[in-house]
Amino acid sequence: MNVNEIREKSRSVIGPYCKSCPVCNGKACSNKIPGPGSKGTGTVAIKNYEAWQKIEVKMDTLAENKEIDTTFEMFGKTFKYPIFAGPVGAVSQHYSDLYNDNMFNEIYVRACAKSGIAAFTGDGLNEEIMMHATHAIKENSGIGVPTIKPWDKDTCFKKLDLANESNAFAIAMDIDAAGLPFLQGRIPPAGRKSVEELKEIIDYAHVPFIVKGIMSVEGAQKAVDAGAKAIVVSNHGGRVLDGTPATACVLEEIADQFKGQVKIIVDGGIRSGLDVFKALALGADAVIIARPFVNMIYGGKDEGVEAYVQQLGQELENTMMMTGVSSLREISKKNIYK
Length: 338
Description:
This is L-lactate oxidase. Helices cover about 40% and strands about 15% of the residues. By secondary structure, the protein is an alpha/beta fold. The protein has a single domain, classed as TIM Barrel (Alpha-Beta Barrel). It has an 8-stranded parallel beta barrel with strand order 4-5-6-7-8-9-10-11, surrounded by 7 helices. α4 runs parallel beside α11. The longest helix has about 30 residues, at about 290-320.
C-alpha cells in the first residue's frame, strides 16, 4: 500500500477527532480538545502548516550531478534522513481504542528504527506507558527518544531511571506540556521549570538531553544554560497556548543565534520532504513530524510507518536534486525565497 491508501484505510478505524485528511493541516480537527486539534481558536496548528507553504525553493539544476546524501548524524548515531517521529500520547482517547499507548509505541519505535529514523515516545499519567516505551527502545538497540513530561522532581527522576536503563541515545522533555490540562493542578506541582530545576533533571540523565518546546531566543538560551544538547522549536502543535506564532516564523532567529552550539530541531505542520528541506534551509538540523504517523499506524502498522518515511525521503531527495545541493550541509537560506 502507498501512503494515500494507508491514510484512507485509517479513516475507518480512527476516532471522531482526527479525520485522516489528505493533508494534515489542522483545519478539520480545529480546536477539538482532547484530540489532535489546537487550543482556543484552533488556529495555531493551521498557522504552523501554512507558514511552511509560504516559503518557496529556488530551482537550480546547473550543478554537479553527484549522488544525493540525506544521512544525518546526531549524538553518535547516523540516520537515513534528518527526520524524527514525534511523541504521541493518549492515543486511545484522542484517536481510537484500536491501540493503547503501549501497543502504539511498540510499533512506532520498531518501525521507525527499521526505516532508518528514530521515534520520540510519549508519556502519560499511567506509569506503564514509560515502562513499555523504554522497553521498546531497549529492544531496538536504543534507537528511540523517551520523552518525559515536566512532572515534579521525584516523578521525573523515576521516569529518568527507566529512560537511562533503555540505552536510548538521547532523552527529551517536552517542557511546553506544562500547558496540557492533565498536568495542571497536580500535587506535587508539575509544569514550568526554572533553569536550575531543569539543570538538575538534565544532570540526572546519562545521555544527551533534548528540550522540546522552545519558541524564542530567550527560551533557547535558558535551555542551553541548563545543559541541553539539543532544542526543539515547537509550540506543541498549537495544543497548549493560543495566539503563538508558527514555528517556521521563529526558527530562523533561533538558529542564527544557536546553530553549532546545540542541535536545532523543529516541528509543527511539517508534512513533506519539501517542508523538511525548507526547515533545514532556515537553520534546523532536523525535524520532527508526529500526527501523520498516527494515521500511518492506524492504517498500516509497520508498513504504514515505513511507507511514509520512504515518501518523505524521496521528496527530500528530489528537492535537493532540483535545487543544486547534494548533502544536508549544503542546504542554506540561499536555496529558498522567504
